[in-house]
């Protein structure tokens, strides 16, 4: 864990988070802990965190787009995206910045409407552009120094979940998420068809 302080204030993070319409995640070292298990048959496996995933579903339900932006081509990435209804999936890209600019152009977003979470120096160019630059707690120091906001959680262990919660709270939508569970009708009260 780091003792570095983010370069901005909580109020500034809140103001930046309120504008976000698209949340982009690096995959390895952000949604996973960065480890890849290589199997003898050439296949690979890695571990995603369920609490990150459900938060992506909530964000999309609230009208916020979610995307994956990974330099590494991996068969697991589109599978995980499909499970979560994430349709903006870019992996195996040679330039994250060029791909980021393509996403903005094609999807009609501006820098200040985008949050990005990355963990390594390959993410710096995109982190320097977006309205809300974020990273897991165990990111490399060059990223930690430049992030507007650093999650308390490490890679693959809830950093993505915390970011989406920060954004939904700033947009006054977090209570809607909670209410959808607290006010869930009992099965006996469900309307019959
Ligand atoms: Mg990474």
Strand-helix topology:
Elements: H1 10-18, E1 22-25, E2 37-38, E3 44-45, H2 50-61, E4 65-70, H3 76-84, E5 88-91, H4 96-107, E6 114-117, H5 124-127, E7 132-135, H6 141-144, E8 149-150, H7 159-170, H8 174-182
Parallel strand pairs: 1-4, 1-6, 4-5, 6-7, 7-8
Antiparallel strand pairs: 2-3
The chain binds magnesium ion.
Word description of this protein:
This protein is of the alpha/beta class. It has a single domain (18-176), classed as 3-Layer(aba) Sandwich (Rossmann fold). 37% of the residues lie in helices and 15% in strands. It contains 8 helices and 8 strands; from the N terminus they run αβββαβαβαβαβαβαα. α1 packs across α7 (159-170) and α2 (50-61) packs parallel to α7 (159-170). It is globular and about 50 Å long.
**Given this structure, which CATH class is correct?**
Alpha Beta
Helix fraction by DSSP (H/I, runs of at least 4)? 25-40%
Order of helices and strands: HEEEHEHEHEHEHEHH
Which hetero compounds are present in the coordinates?
magnesium ion
Provide tags for this entry.
193 residues; alpha/beta; Rossmann fold; six-stranded parallel beta sheet; 8 helices; 37% helix; 15% strand; globular; binds magnesium ion
